[in-house]
Amino acid sequence: MNLSMFTIAFRHYFKRITRDKLGILIFTVIPIVITAILSYIYSNNTDEAIIVNGYNMVTTHISIGMLLLFQLNGGLYVLHYLNNDFVKDMKWRLKSTPVPTHILAFAALASCAVFMIIQGILVVGFTSLFMEAYWGNYIVTLAVIILVAIFSVLLNVMFFFLVKKVSLTETLSWVSAWLMAALGGLMFDLPQNAFFIFMREYGSPFALGQTAIKASGFLAPSISDIIIGLVGIAVIIVILGLIVIRLGRRKLA
């Protein structure tokens, strides 16, 4: 891959993404606002001790869930660029440029992932500094943010290549993210049987990320769970990446 061409294309797409004020609002401000509202409601409706070691456990649980839920949908950013630049309006203009299509596409995916990582760091930083949320080991949390961002981009690109409609891809993205969050125990208590315990702890990228973050601190300390969580998401990313490369060669040709 030509590095100079990739750098130019990356800057181009990163600037376009940062101009999307609505996206910043949805994926950075809203998860913080929802966390604040739900934390206030639940904290005032429980008799259990919610402050442990100086951290608010209600805020912690909601913050981790909201971070992962919105990160899983962050890949929606890249859909509009794929649709406009590589499928519809700009397709033939871009094909006439000296930059190969695969470099443009990779730059779009990479810029989207980097932007999502920055947004995830902002959510963690704000909830940690101002809302007493506990994020365990920050290096592990950062690794989860990076892996989930890459997973989200690849998942949404795969959906888009398969259905070729932005609106349908958005629906699939939100449904899959909410399903993973629900099975990860974010919305309600799950039955205590082997299937739901597995789904809550290891059954999806949401569950793997959540388990890794909690295992990295005093919530549920476990080196093996950190490794399982991070490696599990990485393996899924490799599989998705191979699928996306195969689909991309056919759909963007």
TrEMBL record:
<feature type="transmembrane region" description="Helical">
    <location>
        <begin position="103"/>
        <end position="126"/>
    </location>
</feature>
<keyword id="KW-0812">Transmembrane</keyword>
<feature type="transmembrane region" description="Helical">
    <location>
        <begin position="138"/>
        <end position="163"/>
    </location>
</feature>
<keyword id="KW-0472">Membrane</keyword>
<feature type="transmembrane region" description="Helical">
    <location>
        <begin position="218"/>
        <end position="245"/>
    </location>
</feature>
<feature type="transmembrane region" description="Helical">
    <location>
        <begin position="21"/>
        <end position="42"/>
    </location>
</feature>
<protein>
    <recommendedName>
        <fullName>ABC-2 type transport system permease protein</fullName>
    </recommendedName>
</protein>
<feature type="transmembrane region" description="Helical">
    <location>
        <begin position="175"/>
        <end position="198"/>
    </location>
</feature>
<feature type="transmembrane region" description="Helical">
    <location>
        <begin position="62"/>
        <end position="82"/>
    </location>
</feature>
<keyword id="KW-1133">Transmembrane helix</keyword>
